[in-house]
Structure formats: C-alpha cells, structure tokens
Amino acid sequence: MRRLIVNADDFGMTRGINRAIVEASSHGIVTSTTLMVTARAFDDAVTLAPTVSSRVSVGCHVIFLDGTPVLPPDRIPSLLQPSPNGAAREFRIKLPDFARAALTGKLNPMEIEAEAAAQIDRLQRAGISPSHIDCHKHAHMFPPVLCPLLRAAESRGVPAIRNPFGRLVPLPFTRILRNPKHWRRVAELGVLRAYSTRFKTQAAAHGLRTPDGCVGVVHTGTLDIESFLVIIDTLPDGTWEFVCHPGYNDAELDQVRTRLRQSRATELSLLTWPDARSALDRRGIQLITFRDL
C-alpha cells in the first residue's frame, strides 16, 4: 500500500500564500498544511483555517531560523542571530550558520524547547489543535534540535511530526543538466540521512507518529508536472509526505525574505492540475492527512 500526505508549508507567510493553500486544498491535492505563528499573515491564516480543516490537517510550522521568535530575546539568546551591539531580535538567517551552531553545541536545548512550546501554545490559543509539527527549513533534522522539539510537542499533546529525511528520488539526467543545484541538494541530503535512524527512534520514544519520510525536497524551487510524475512513479510502499510550497508571487511576497517566488505559482498550478488526482489514482496512491497516521 502507498499513502501520500501532500503538505503545503508556510501557511501564514503572506495572504497570497494563504489563499493558494486554500485553493490547492479545495480544488487540488493538498491534504495538509503547517502554520507559521510569527509570520505576517498569521491572523489571516487563522481565519481561513476553519474553511479547510474538515479536509486538511493543520500543523505548526515551528521557526528556529529566518524569522522572529514568540519569546522575548532575553529568554532565548542562543537561538538569535549574533549582533555586535547585543540587540539581536531575529533567528539566524542562513541554514549553514544554524547547522554549525546546532552541531557545535551553541544552541541551548532548554531555549529550543521553550520557544517551540511557545509557538505551539500560540497556535492552540488561536483555536487550532495542531495535528503535527515540522520545522521551517527542516531544522529539526539536527539531533540537538530534535530532542527538545519532541519534548515540547509531547508536553503539548501534538501527536505527529514530519520525518524530514527525504527519499532521494532519481532525477532524469536532462533535468540535472538544466539545474546543477540538484547535484548539491542531493549530496547534502545524502549526508544528512545519517541522522534518520536516530530520528525514528527518538520520535517513537516520545510517542509521536511519523511518516516513512519526505519526497519532493530535492525539487523545492523547481517542482513541476514532470518532476511530480517522477516522484509518484517511483514512490515506494509505505506512508510518505510530499512537501510543497504553493503561493502567489505578488507584491506582499516581495516584502518577505524567501528564495521561492515564481516557483510558488508554478507549484500551485501543479497542485490544482486537473489530472493530478487521477494520476495518483492510476498508480494506486491514496491521499491521506496527518490525522490518518
């Protein structure tokens, strides 16, 4: 049996992204989303959430980098971007800087747990009981981040978590030639897969359910119908999460720090492609939500 959760990240980032996620769940194949509680369109996302919650699982997209925290800066100094004047207010921006800090013991696990719990609390106070959690830019793939995140989720009754370790679905050679960035991304994911066994053990120890892994991560920023068909043609047995980022490339997105712009509109077209659901049906792939784990 093959089951697939189609999760749209970044709910709450902009109103255009919110609108796209609603459209991709109403008229497309999106079955899940994760909400960013400190993003600019959080209130708009909370308003829209009841319109999709009957068919879509809504989780918490926990932010530890490239964003702002819920807690005051003096409560989580190790998580913030180093500042020469000591007035840091934001998380580290770049993933390599965050990874370096995580793997060299510079992130305080108590601060990670407290900030994660605060973000989950804010979502719950807004009336949304998160079906699962994941992290912006898959920050929980690093073991020093995962353990305190799992403690926060367990303490707040969150039942599931994204397995961030993607299956390296083969890419057509012509696509690699067109986009050499795929080489680097495949290499990076290959190195990080060393953490995957530990991830499953720790998630189970804290009572959180998780899919068998992610697909689509390699294609972030380049996802289209061709790559979608490659993914579903090679999907193995089990339960997998397909990570996507639909949105509108509008004036509000221009005000947000993100590398994903026109690709969001391209992904929306794919996710609402009239033949997408029948393509899954023909391959015997069942769409589910995180609530179905």
Keyphrases for this structure?
globular, single chain, TIM Barrel, 293 residues, alpha/beta
Descriptive overview:
- The chain is globular.
- It is an alpha/beta fold and 293 residues long.
- It has a single domain (2-292), classed as Alpha-Beta Barrel (TIM Barrel).
- The model is unreliable at 186-191 (pLDDT under 50).
- Helix 1 packs parallel to helix 2.
- Strands 1, 2, 3, 4, 5, 6 and 7 form a 7-stranded parallel beta sheet that branches.
- The chain contains 11 helices and 7 strands.
Overview in brief:
With 293 residues, this protein is an alpha/beta fold.
For the terminal residues, how far apart are their CA atoms? 13 Å
Strands, total number: 7
Shape label: globular
CATH A-level architecture: Alpha-Beta Barrel
Strand content: 5-15%
The CATH C-level name is Alpha Beta
* Alpha-carbon Rg, integer: 18 Å
Q: What ranges have pLDDT less than 50 throughout 5 or more consecutive residues?
A: 186-191
CATH homologous superfamily descriptor: Glycoside hydrolase/deacetylase
